[in-house]
Prior knowledge:
Layout: H1 7-16, H2 18-28, E1 30-34, H3 48-51, H4 56-60, H5 62-65, H6 72-82, E2 87-93, H7 119-129, E3 133-139, H8 155-174, E4 181-185, H9 193-196, H10 198-208, E5 213-214, E6 239-242, H11 254-257, H12 264-276, E7 280-285, H13 295-311, E8 330-335, E9 338-343, E10 352-355, E11 361-366, E12 374-378, E13 381-385, E14 399-405
Parallel strand pairs: 1-2, 1-7, 2-3, 3-4, 4-5, 6-7
Antiparallel strand pairs: 8-9, 9-14, 10-13, 11-14, 12-13
Helix pairs in contact: 6-7, 6-13, 12-13
Bound molecules: alpha-D-glucopyranose.
Alpha-D-glucopyranose (GLC) binds next to loops.
Amino acid sequence: xxxxxxxxxxxxxxxxxxxxxxxxxxxxxxxxxxxxxxxxxxxxxxxxxxxxxxxxxxxxxxxxxxxxxxxxxxxxxxxxxxxxxxxxxxxxxxxxxxxxxxxxxxxxxxxxxxxxxxxxxxxxxxxxxxxxxxxxxxxxxxxxxxxxxxxxxxxxxxxxxxxxxxxxxxxxxxxxxxxxxxxxxxxxxxxxxxxxxxxxxxxxxxxxxxxxxxxxxxxxxxxxxxxxxxxxxxxxxxxxxxxxxxxxxxxxxxxxxxxxxxxxxxxxxxxxxxxxxxxxxxxxxxxxxxxxxxxxxxxxxxxxxxxxxxxxxxxxxxxxxxxxxxxxxxxxxxxxxxxxxxxxxxxxxxxxxxxxxxxxxxxxxxxxxxxxxxxxxxxxxxxxxxxxxxxxxxxxxxxxxxxxxxxxxxxxxxxxxxxxxxxxxxxx
Length: 428
Ligand code: GLC
């Protein structure tokens, strides 16, 4: 039995060891979210059971037809590694209540039905093989369990249901060795941490995995925020989770989803925004019914991986936030005295003027090959000179330039009037 802390004591305790626990996560920047479960067989999104009013018995039949091919989790992990991702988060059990592991608490699982295999174990082994950190998504809401809706108004049902949820998570955190992330979702129908017993549950779970990082969806703030389908900078640690196509987390037909899906440039732009804002990107794929990677994700993620091999310096470990735009055709990120310019549109003038830097520039270079770039600095203006005619990035056309300043870079935001910007005419 552990001694339970009060909420303020617990929050202080986890704040005190947070830097140490989250060091790897803050450097990782990029992870893969996997929404895989019975709903992949329907191909209409992971909410199909609720949205289409499936009777439980009819939905249950999908469990017998569920047939992940051998080696599917290895495919996800291989692609994640190739894409430059550093961790994966799998829906061990989504809202439909089907567990992808050998659960004693929940007989509705992939060992009793369908493949008769422990998919979570295969996932964990694949992550370890490809040296990826391991995250478990765990739904709080459950459309299968008889107490899951009664728990809102019946205290005996609430006790049974929260015990059940704890037990599922206890299994997940004791059967597979070290787990890095616990990713809760959808705390419905109770609307408080007291209702979910989250304070006690999370303390007990942390006791089992002292290094674990927990998200903010059990109605406690815990370790990181989770903006969904939007990249919104938050104070503290945060991770934007994004679908691949803006439509669905679970599998939908690849050919039809392709036009809605991200290409490599779209993913690189998201990486830029999270890096500049001090967050992570958890980019989802919804595997096909047999567990294969959806086709439309392969080329973009592979390209991003090649791009990151050359330009990862502008992403991983860029711990300083930056909210400054020296040109309308670039994004920025920052590590200490270095500002990285992500060139979305390559200038055809073979020069690139940048405004608003107030610190002396020491050097400029391309990140992909470290070749130096000539420049001039006058007032708040830097002009990069003698640039190649075409973007030198062969993978995505997004060349990155590192500007190394003599000191912590200071910026001056552009005003509406260039006359007010120069620092020479009027210094306002
Ligand atoms: C939402 C949805 C869910 C999805 C999740 C991912 O809460 O209910 O289907 O798994 O977001 O963040």
